[in-house]
Amino acid sequence: MPQLNKESLDQAREELIAARDKAVKALRGAVTRAEQRGNELFQELVKAGEALQEERAKAQSKLQGKAKAGKTSAESALETLRQRTAELLGLPTRDDVEALNKKLNTLTRKVRKIEKAATGA
């Protein structure tokens, strides 16, 4: 067994301290690198989330536009069907009823005017 002298102990202690210092530096480097990569990953996830949100908003807007166009188309088709049904049944159209209302109002005014003239005479 080799003899332990002060020089070999001092040398071993210096090597141990140097190894410890290297390990501490390596640990600090690993922590720093992990933080950097964690921050990079976080930023990538934020960008991916924002892109997904934009895509979802565009898709929703597109669907709303299609739904609105479909609603308008359906309303138009329903109005056409209603008009055709009314024609086939011989029912008056909205325009016919409005024209009759105008004539009725005109006749009502004329009758009142005649009544007023007859009562006043």
Topology:
Blueprint: H1 6-89, H2 94-120
Task: Describe this entry's structure for a reader.
With 121 residues, the protein is mainly α. The chain has helices spanning 6-89, 94-120. The longest helix has 84 residues, at 6-89. The mean pLDDT is 88.
Summarize the structure.
The chain is an all-alpha fold and 121 residues long. It has helices at residues 6-89, 94-120. The protein has 2 helices and no strands.
- Radius of gyration, rounded? 46 Å
Count up the domains: 2
General shape: rod-shaped
Question: How are helices and strands ordered from N to C?
Answer: HH
Strand content: under 5%
pLDDT < 50 runs, ≥5 residues = none
Rounded mean pLDDT is 88
Query: How helical, in percent, are the residues?
Result: over 70%
Main pleated-sheet profile: none
Number of helices: 2
Strand segment tally: 0
Distance from first to last alpha carbon: 152 Å
User: Which class best fits the helix and strand makeup?
Assistant: mainly alpha
Main attributes of the structure:
121 residues, mainly alpha, 2 domains, 2 helices, 0% strand
